[in-house]
Design a protein that fits this description.
The protein has about 170 residues and is of the alpha+beta class. The chain is built from one helix and nine strands, in the order ββββαβββββ. The chain has a five-stranded antiparallel β-sheet with strand order 5-6-7-8-9, covered by helices on one side. Strand 6 and strand 7 form a beta hairpin. The longest helix has about 55 residues. The N and C termini lie far apart (about 95 Å). The relative contact order is 0.09.
């Protein structure tokens, strides 16, 4: 694809240029410009094709990036839920392990546990719900703790809704 002076057409890029024999100079402002300077570049059809390919590539990369962001957000939410529930279970298990005088209703109402902790305080763990005045978890159901018949305080975040919580008493006499 070299430029030959004896041929009528030569190529630069994708677009054919006029022969250098027909080189005409004209004036734009104070500058002399040859007609061949305006004939280099891409045709409209080539630009549309390149733009189409570029658009397809951008759409593919954008959708992949958005999917990755969505997956990362879901993983972060799942990690937050697990951390929140792990904290609640750890707090409950520590206190239950050192307590005495356990009381758990029989199934299917075994959604709460009451006992005396190591400090002699009356503790109750249960799910919040409509039967608790001024639900501390707004519209969601969360795990709550009550000390010495005081107010219920949430153990889990109000943004997490706990569907089921059951306690079973085994190995000791109530």
């Amino acid at each position: 694809h070299g430029i030959l002076m004896n041929h009528r057409i030569h190529y630069a890029g994708f677009t054919p240029l006029e022969s250098l024999h027909h080189k005409r100079l004209f004036r734009i402002g104070r500058w002399k410009v040859s007609k061949k300077d305006f004939l280099t570049g891409f045709t409209l059809l080539e630009m549309i094709a390149a733009l189409g390919v570029f658009s397809v590539v951008i759409v593919i990369f954008s959708s992949t990036f958005l999917n990755l962001l969505n997956a990362e957000r879901k993983a972060q939410i799942a990690a937050n839920v697990q951390d929140n529930l792990r904290f609640a279970v750890e707090v409950m298990s520590k206190e239950i392990r050192t307590g005495t005088g356990y009381s758990v209703p029989p199934p299917p109402t075994n959604t709460s546990v009451a006992f005396m902790n190591a400090d002699g305080e009356a503790i109750e763990y249960r799910l919040s719900g409509s039967d608790i005045p001024s639900n501390p978890c707004s519209q969601n159901v969360c795990i709550v703790k009550r000390t010495n018949a005081g107010d219920y305080l949430p153990l889990t975040s109000s943004q997490i809704s706990v569907d089921k919580l059951e306690f079973y008493l085994s190995g000791i006499q109530p």
